[in-house]
Design the sequence.
């Protein structure tokens, strides 16, 4: 399928840093101006069909194609908090992550338990002590 006319806004979109916004505007241009079907838009642009469909549904329902702020995701642990967690673990290697997390909360640090656990697991290797195997009398004789 050939495009007869040029896309009307390429110079306007050259300044946009995010490629996602460009793709969304391109999808909407094909859908509303060129009157192409979702399948034709997908074939023409190389964008997956589900992405084309979701973009058009979002535009029709919200009237907006911009990204939204996400909520609920905690920020990453600062380098200072990471170094404090590492030093606490080095001081006592048998101390569990829950105890370290409680100490951090008492100090007024805003670090979640999962961030504490992730920091410990990414820096330190977990080592399990071997079990002492009890030999039967018959196996002791074989030694």
Sequence:
């Amino acid at each position: 399928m050939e495009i007869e006319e040029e896309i009307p806004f390429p110079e306007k979109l050259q300044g946009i840093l995010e490629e996602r916004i460009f793709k969304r505007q391109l999808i909407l241009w094909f859908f509303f101006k060129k009157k192409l079907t979702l399948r034709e838009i997908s074939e023409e642009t190389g964008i997956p069909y589900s992405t084309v469909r979701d973009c058009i549904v979002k535009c029709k329902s919200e009237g907006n194609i911009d990204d939204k702020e996400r909520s609920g995701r905690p920020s990453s642990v600062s380098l200072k908090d990471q170094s404090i967690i590492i030093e606490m673990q080095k001081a006592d290697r048998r101390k569990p992550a829950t105890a370290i997390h409680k100490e951090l909360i008492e100090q007024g640090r805003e670090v979640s338990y999962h961030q504490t656990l992730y920091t410990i697991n990414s820096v330190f290797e977990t080592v399990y002590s071997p079990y002492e195997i009890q030999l039967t009398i018959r196996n002791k004789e074989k030694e």
